[in-house]
Design goal:
The chain has helices spanning 16-23, 26-29, 44-50, 62-67, 116-127, 143-151, 162-171, 201-223, 230-236, 242-255, 265-277, 287-290, 294-302; strands at residues 2-8, 32-37, 56-59, 74-81, 86-91, 106-109, 136-138, 157-161, 175-180, 190-195. The protein is α/β, with parallel strands linked by helices and 303 residues long.
Amino acid sequence: MQPFHLTATGYNLNYLPEYIALRHGFFREQGLDVTVNIPVPWDGVLDKLADGTADMALGGIWVPSMYRDRVKHYTVFAQIANRSPLAILRRGHSEGFKLADTAGKTVLMKSGGGASVGLFFKMLLRENGVDPRSVDYIQDLDGVMLGNLFQGGMGDYFITDNLSGLAMADRNRDVSVAMQMVTEGDVPWSVYYRETATITPELLDAQKRFCIALNKGIDWVLQHDAESFREELAELFPAVPVDVAVSVTNTFRAVGMWTSTSVSRKGFDRWQQGLTDARLVNTPLAYESIVDDGPASAAQTAA
């Protein structure tokens, strides 16, 4: 059994097919002993790659994008989350909400896990004709702290992950989910990558086998209504009401959170424009400059 260690930036429901692949032995079927750690703070994943203790990192593609030609080159070889797993919360009812409603208001956004929350929300505003500068932001605090402050009266809207947002609305009837951003189009939200200079033919073969197992995990989730594995969801996410976990999982299944391990070119180009507008990259990167679809493509052929 080949050790294959993953360092991840968090533990999220949008990574569910990976957790299923681990629990159901799909990686072991491919001869891989996959282990996972989550460094605190999250950017410790780069240290794990640099010192060789991790074979791959899981996180946002914005990190390899902004590091390229500035600090270090990373190559993305697979994707797990094809959509943004965020939600916008407001007080009162959610009927009739439009993104333009946030202009002139204060939006709370967690940032402890990286920049993705603000990057996606501001890109979505621009795509819908709203100037991000027309919104006030509070985003340099922990998500739990911001959630408590929002419920206590701070700000007008709160952006957090979908699962936490729905759980909050389930507990607090004064709060509602105004928008589930998973409906707002493709982006390579969460990807697997490692340092380009360290990639070898042997590693490419392991990446292909990893993708075969991960695709099997994706297919398993897509083929099973979440209600049929609610006990497994309860074990994976014990802090969340299981009915909420089932609901979010089925929403993700229905709208394209999980597709395949290949990074969508259309989603990639959209996200690169968003990163450019946010000044994280000077110009949008070309797909082939940062993504090697070889392992994911070979996995699909093998399957």
